[in-house]
Every structure is written in C-alpha cells, then in structure tokens.
C-alpha cells in the first residue's frame, strides 16, 4: 500500500511538471503526457522489486521533458542499494550523460526550458537537487540501517551467548547436585536396604521379618525414584531418558501409600466423596503429593495418631483433606529440611489452587488443598 501511494504521488507530480513547465513541445497531446506520467507511477510502484525501470523512465523523461520526479526517486534508491564505489560512480556518470542530453535538447528550444538546462549554474543546481541530494540521502539511510542491523546482530549474539552460559551453569549445577545426591543420599538408602535385607534373613521374629521386608521394599522404591530424579538432573531433555522414567504416582496409587502408613501402626481411613471420576494427571499427582506430605508429617510429629484422608470431587475442583487426631506417644524426632509444606503450597498454587494448614482445637492438625479440576 505504501508504494501504491508513492506511485500515485509520482504520477500526479510528473503530470503537473510536464503540463506546467515552459518549453514542452506543443505538438505533444495531453494523452501522451498522461501515459508518460502513468509509466513513472507504475515504475515507482515496481521499485520494491527493481528500481531500474524507474531509472530508465526517469532518464527518458528528464532528457526529453525535464520531468524530474522519477529521477529523484531512482537516485534515492541508487544510494540505498548500490555499492558505495563502482555502482554509485556508474550511476552518477549515467546521470551526467542524461543531463548533457537534456542540455542539447533544451538548446534546440527557447524559453524556460533552455534556461534551465543550458545555463551552467541552473544545470548544476538541478543536478545537485534532483540527483546528488537524493543519492546522499539514500547513502545515509543505508548506513544507518547497516549500523542498526549490526547492533541488533551483536545484541542477539550476546543474548545467545548469555543463554548458552546460563544453560551451561545450570547443567553444571544439576550435575553437582546429582553427584551429591548419588554419593550421599543413594549411598545411605542403599545401606538401609541392605541392613533391612540382612535383618529379614537372620531374624526368627515374624513381626521383625515383616517390618524388615516393608523397610526393604520402601527403600528399593526410594532408590528407583532417586535414580529417575538423578537421570532428569543429568540429562533433562534426553528423549531416551523420558521414555525410561517411571510415571509419577497418582490417586490410583494412593491405597498403596496408605497401606505403608498402616503397616507402621497408624490408623488411616480413606473417604471418597462426590462423583469419583478421572481428572487431569497433573491434578492427581499434586493430590497424591498432598496426602504423602501430610502423612510424612504425621509420622514425624503425631506418633500413631489416627488420620482421616478425604478426597472430595466437586464439579470443577478436587479437594484433598488430611486430618489427624491429637498426637499419640512421642516418637524419635526425625530430621527434616522444613520445606515440605512450602514446596507443597508452591506445587498447588502452580495449578491455581490453594493450600490451608492449621492446628485443630483438639490438638490435631489439618491439611486441606483445593485444586481446580
């Protein structure tokens, strides 16, 4: 659209110049002038593809009728696109030839046409205004564009380098964390599994055998999960690694989690309310983690307190509620980082949900999550 408007403007200005300029041959009818002016408009519209047709029309129009508008536009695009040495010199040389032809044609006529083209001062002013100045403007615009393009390329290159450095730093930090987890956590859990297996083989107490088998199973499951986490840390974008990962637990695995707590002597009751239906996998995973963290806190701080787990299916929300009674007999205090509920709240809020934790009047504790489903 921009070049359509520019072509229309050049057509109108060219027609105005050749109609109002003295010295135009009287034998040229108006339709001829309109056709010539229309040719300059069409050539201007074609400039984005090639500006040489406009230069040719401008040369003919200026040499014949001193029609300068197309020559101005073509000179600007010559400075904008031609190389700064040989191409510019060749174009300016061609323009000098056109000006010479125009002077010869003007010398054959009288009036203003002769004064404009044959007088050295007037010819120099016309050449500078219609050719030199547009070429200089085109050169300036091109130089400015090149500077901006170079600055943009440099900024993009620096941004890419910064991203690569950040990715490298993240990869190094992930590798460091993976090494620490493997050397410390995995080693300790492996020792737990080995000792549980030895206890299971050597003892004659049925209850001790059952507990040792439970500890060993939980330890092996923890090692498998830890192995998956270490794989993600070391190669988070590997397709092979993604295919080998175990799917994270969902609500279908909740009963197994509750059975593990029951085997430790805690009375855990599950209640499903509302119309039980499958929900999004991420929602089910988050709900599972809510119950898991709440039961972990019960083990740490509430001894063998009875616990109720409620899964409430609403029309557009899934509610998870874990409520335990007043703490029973104190157990050995287990070490913890203190970030369990903080991370759990972040996990729930990422899905647009809310997490509420509060102490109950009777001494119990409540964990309640509302997750859009």
Please, could you describe this protein's structure?
It is a single chain. The chain has helices spanning about 1-20, 30-45, 50-65, 70-80, 85-105, 110-120, 120-200, 205-235, 240-245, 255-260, 280-300, 340-350, and strands at about 270-275, 305-315, 315-325, 355-360, 365-370. It has a five-stranded mixed sheet. The radius of gyration is 43 Å and the shape is rod-shaped. With about 375 residues, it is an alpha+beta fold. Among the domains are: about 1-120, no CATH class; about 250-373, Histidine kinase-like ATPase, C-terminal domain (Heat Shock Protein 90, 2-Layer Sandwich), CATH 3.30.565.10. Helices cover about 65% and strands about 10% of the residues. It comes from Sphaerisporangium dianthi. Keywords: ATP-binding, Kinase, Membrane, Nucleotide-binding, Phosphoprotein, Transferase, Transmembrane, Transmembrane helix, Two-component regulatory system.
Please provide a brief summary of the model.
With 373 residues, this protein is α+β, with helices and mostly antiparallel strands.
Number of helices: 12
Q: Give me the CATH architecture of the domain at 250-373, please.
A: 2-Layer Sandwich
Which residues sit in consecutive blocks of at least 5 with pLDDT less than 50? 239-243
| N-to-C span | 49 Å
Question: Major sheet: order of its strands?
Answer: 1-2-3-5-4
Pattern of helices and strands: HHHHHHHHHHEHEEHEE
What fraction, in percent, of the residue positions are helical?
55-70%
Q: Given the helix and strand composition, which structural class is it?
A: alpha+beta
Fraction in beta strands: 5-15%
CATH fold label of the domain at 250-373: Heat Shock Protein 90
User: How would a textbook summarize the main sheet?
Assistant: 5 strands, mixed
Radius of gyration: 43 Å
CATH superfamily of the domain at 250-373: Histidine kinase-like ATPase, C-terminal domain
Oligomer: single chain
Sum up the overall morphology in one term. rod-shaped
């Amino acid at each position: 659209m921009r070049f359509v408007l520019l072509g229309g403007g050049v057509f109108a200005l060219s027609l105005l110049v050749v109609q109002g300029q003295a010295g135009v041959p009287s034998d040229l009818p108006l339709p001829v002038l309109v056709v010539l002016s229309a040719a300059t408009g069409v050539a201007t519209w074609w400039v984005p593809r090639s500006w040489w047709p406009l230069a040719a029309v401008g040369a003919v129009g200026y040499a014949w009728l001193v029609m300068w508008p197309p020559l101005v536009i073509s000179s600007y695009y010559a400075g904008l696109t031609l190389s700064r040495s040989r191409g510019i010199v060749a174009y300016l040389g061609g323009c000098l030839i056109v000006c010479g032809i125009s002077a010869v044609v003007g010398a054959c006529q009288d009036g203003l046409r002769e004064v404009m083209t044959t007088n050295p001062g007037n010819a120099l002013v016309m050449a500078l205004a219609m050719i030199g100045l547009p070429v200089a403007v085109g050169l300036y615009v091109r130089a400015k564009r090149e500077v901006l393009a170079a600055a943009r390329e440099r900024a993009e290159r620096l941004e890419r380098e910064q991203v690569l450095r950040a990715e490298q730093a993240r990869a190094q930090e992930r590798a460091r964390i993976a090494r620490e987890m493997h050397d410390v956590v995995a080693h300790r859990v492996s020792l737990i599994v080995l000792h549980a297996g030895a206890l299971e083989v050597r003892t004659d107490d049925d209850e001790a055998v059952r507990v040792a088998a439970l500890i060993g199973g939980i330890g092996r499951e923890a090692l498998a999960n830890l192995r998956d986490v270490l794989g993600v840390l070391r190669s988070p974008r590997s397709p092979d690694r993604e295919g080998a990962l175990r799917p994270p637990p969902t609500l279908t695995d909740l009963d197994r989690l509750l059975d593990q707590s029951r085997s430790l002597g805690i009375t855990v009751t599950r209640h499903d309310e509302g119309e039980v239906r499958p929900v999004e996998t991420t929602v089910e995973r988050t709900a599972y983690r809510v119950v898991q963290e709440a039961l972990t806190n019960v083990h740490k701080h509430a001894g063998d307190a009875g616990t109720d787990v409620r899964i409430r299916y609403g029309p557009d929300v899934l509610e998870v509620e874990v409520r335990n009674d007043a703490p029973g007999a104190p157990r050995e205090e287990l070490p913890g980082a203190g970030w369990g509920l903080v991370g759990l709240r972040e996990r729930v809020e990422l899905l647009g949900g809310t997490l509420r934790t509060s102490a109950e009047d009777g001494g119990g504790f409540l964990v309640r999550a509302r997750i859009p489903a």
